[in-house]
Design brief:
Blueprint lengths: L10 H10 L5 H10 L6 H9 L2 H12 L12 H8 L1 H14 L12 H21 L7 H10 L3 H8 L1 H14 L3 H8 L4 H11 L4 H8 L9 H15 L15 H7 L3 H6 L5 H12 L2
Helix pairs in contact: 1-12, 2-3, 2-6, 4-6, 5-6, 6-8, 7-8, 7-14, 7-17, 8-13, 8-14, 9-10, 9-12, 10-11, 12-13, 13-14
Length: about 290
């Protein structure tokens, strides 16, 4: 994980804050345990999910939503495991649970509705970019989850470092400086570092942890991080929601080279991205 550059907060303090985040429901914790055990079976995991009707409904709702974009409707967890794989189901279970910890009444004044809209559209765009690069459908869920949770460190700050985070938000807006730089100045670390620690706590794959940790890197190397960087900028450029950072960054050389075009050209290469916004809003209103 990238080092902390400022003494205002150290890793131990951040880990203590992360530990305060709400625990997942027992069903999700059990899923994490089973998926990390090579001796567990898919049948056991399906049984755990199906024993939690709320979790079952939310997972099927995500899978069947237009912005997730599966070509056929799936009506059961058992069928979902066969069709999109156990890793996807685990990732979606963790993602659905994480949305449940958002606090709309946080003291930082952070707009969680706008944040969720930005996160959902970034997730959908990141998955589309992966598909565009030929990533197998079974692996595209990692891209969706990375987009959904890339800014989740901001939720930690809004909840437990509210006053400092409010100052960072105000400084970013007033001086038009990227929020993660203002967080480093006001808090001592940025949301990507906080989000990566949270992802580790929630037992995400290391690739997802790394993508969250480096989604503002000046030269991202892995395909997942490169797609996440691009998706984040596209969502901001299109003004799909707002995560407290309106600064749109140019593509670094590795991202530009990956897609063979810059940010504006990539946006123009799609017929209409605005449907993603309406689909995400529809999803949010139904949760």
């Amino acid at each position: 994980m990238k080092p902390i550059n400022n003494s205002t907060m150290d890793n131990d303090e951040l880990i203590a804050l992360v530990e305060k985040m709400p625990a997942f429901p027992n069903s999700v914790q059990r899923i994490i345990q089973l998926t990390s055990d090579i001796n567990s079976s898919g049948k056991e995991i399906v049984e755990v999910i199906e024993s939690d009707p709320v979790m079952t409904v939310k997972i099927l709702k995500v899978i069947n939503s237009p912005f997730y974009g599966l070509p056929k409707k799936i009506n059961s967890i058992q069928r979902a495991v066969v069709y999109i794989g156990m890793n996807t189901i685990k990732n979606l279970a963790l993602s659905v649970a994480s949305i449940g910890v958002l606090n709309p009444k946080n003291k930082a004044g952070f707009n969680t509705h706008a944040f969720l809209l930005h996160s959902l559209t970034t997730a959908a765009i990141c998955k589309k970019l992966a598909e565009r690069q030929g990533v197998p459908q079974a692996d595209c869920s990692d891209f969706f989850v990375a987009g959904l949770l890339h800014d989740f460190g901001k939720v930690v700050f809004a909840e437990f470092k509210a006053e400092d985070f409010r100052k960072a938000l105000q400084k970013s807006a007033a001086e038009q400086i990227s929020l993660h730089r203002c967080e480093s100045e006001c808090i001592g670390m940025d949301h990507s570092q906080a989000g990566a620690l949270l992802a580790e706590k929630w037992a995400f794959d290391q690739l997802l942890v790394d993508a969250i940790n480096h989604h503002h890197a000046s030269n991202p190397h892995h395909l997942l991080t490169q797609c996440l960087f691009a998706a984040n900028q596209i969502s901001k450029k299109m003004e799909f929601g707002h995560s407290g950072n309106s600064i749109v960054e140019e593509f670094p050389p590795a991202v530009d080279s990956l897609f063979g075009m810059g940010l504006n050209e990539l946006i123009e290469s799609w017929e209409d991205l605005t449907t993603l916004r309406s689909e995400a809003l529809s999803f949010i209103s139904g949760t």
